[in-house]
Amino acid sequence: MNLKIFLAACLFVVLFVISLMIGVSDFEFSKIFSDDDHLLILMASRIPRNFAIVLTGSSLAIVGVIMQMIAANKFVEPTTAGTMDSAALGILCATLLWPHSGLMFKMLIATLFSLFGSWIFLGIIRRLPVTNPLLVPLVGIMLGGVIGSIATFIAYEADLLQYLSIWINGDFSGILRGRYELLWITFGLSIIAYFIANQLTIVGMGENIATNLGLNYRAIISLGLIIVAMVTAIIVTTVGMIPFIGLVIPNIVNRVVGDNLTKALPIIAYIGAVFTLVCDIIGRLIIFPYEITVSVIIGAIGSAVFIYLILKRPRHV
Questions:
Q1: What is the DSSP code string of the chain?
Q2: Which of 6, 75, 117, 275 supports an S-S bond with 137, CB 3.0-4.6 Å?
Q3: Domain enclosing residue 217, as ranges
Q4: To the nearest whole number, what is the mean pLDDT of the chain?
Q5: What is the total count of domains within the chain?
Q6: Total-model pTM
């Protein structure tokens, strides 16, 4: 087990260093102490970008599994539940109503919209037949489409379509020192999620079982949704919408480790971070020196895995 952890850590460090070395600007590690420009590139651009990638990938994977436990469905995550689209709508409304507001205020408004959108989604799926689990993500995708259409219409009327596209297309190219620090909040929220992992595992068994075991079902559901809404809002505000991480990674880990979140969450966070790092590296290398946004790379890979998971889903899903 220790060997596996060591190899996993080595893989992460190698990918992190490779990501630091990729970029349009000339950069060499050997010159960071002798050339101020190289040190500035490293500290102001490369390292903040890598931290943003790791925090985004790990936290999106974690909130994905939280959504799956709350909805009792393996095909649910913020992009298939309308949560991300709600966050984008919230940021747009904050921009229109309070144009001089700061990033933190917009994030808070986006959190409220994300929370409201998630509650609508849960309210709808409670009325769906439990015999067809594939209806749940389809309803979530349609709900997200409706919310996204509303946001697009408002942006069109306000001449903010280009502004809206920044949040719809997840991209790390604009990450610099001073523009990503909000993402560290997602790290704290992920820690909170780990401490309530056992309760979330019980919640995934259903309300009756959770209540019989003495768990405050509604309190854990509310806390889980707040974590999901805050993480989603922070990421959409800072980076933009990135699909499928919260769907693909938890399902892969679940097939190997099982539903025990205390054991699975660190693995989910690690694979989410590594997967996002790899996709970002691919996006920067395919047409170098130009860049394909990470949301496109992850969307292409994630959609293929999503289809595979639907076709090969276990009977108990």
A1: -HHHHHHHHHHHHHHHHHHHH-SSS---GGGTTT-HHHHHHIIIIIHHHHHHHHHHHHHHHHHHHHHHHHHT-TT--GGGTTHHHHHHHHHHHHHHH-TT--HHHHHHHHHHHHHHHHHHHHHHHTTS-TT-TTHHHHHHHHHHHHHHHHHHHHHHHTT-HHHHHHHHS--STT--TTSSGGGHHHHHHHHHHHHTHHHHHHHTT-HHHHHHTT--HHHHHHHHHHHHHHHHHHHHHHT----SHHHHHHHHHHHHH-S-HHHHHHHHHHHHHHHHHHHHHHHHHTTTTS---HHHHHHHHHHHHHHHHHHT--TT-
A2: 75
A3: 2-311
A4: 85
A5: 1
A6: 0.88
